[in-house]
Design goal:
3-stranded antiparallel β-sheet, single chain, mainly beta
């Protein structure tokens, strides 16, 4: 089965976005993270798109045009490595053609 969950929420008290914990579930589960942005569709090759979460390399399965919304690109990451379990807030660093996107934080339960 497939389940979609939010990984961020807006905190009105601090007027900022905060990451929500990603539960990797039991060992038999595979968890994927889908990012949206712009600029990845112009990469020369998929292997020119890399990602680390908390310093751990994560597979990039797709990086290109989202398909339904003009100008929106999609990056499919995963499955997320089980070694990330329990890490809490960690940096996600995406690099396309050697250029790093803005670093974001994700929370891993």
């Amino acid at each position: 089965t497939q389940r979609v969950e939010q990984v961020i929420r807006f905190d009105t008290a601090t007027n900022s976005f905060v990451p929500l914990p990603i539960n990797l579930g039991p060992v038999t589960d595979q968890v994927f993270l889908i990012l949206f942005g712009s600029g990845t569709r112009y990469r020369a090759a998929l292997n020119n798109v890399t990602c680390t979460i908390g310093g751990t390399a994560v597979d990039v399965g797709f990086a290109g045009a989202q398909g339904d919304l003009v100008g929106l690109d999609q990056i499919n990451l995963g499955p997320l490595p089980r070694s990330l379990a329990g890490r809490g807030n960690v940096n996600l660093i995406l690099t396309v053609e050697g250029r790093a996107a803005n670093t974001v934080q994700v929370s891993i339960q």
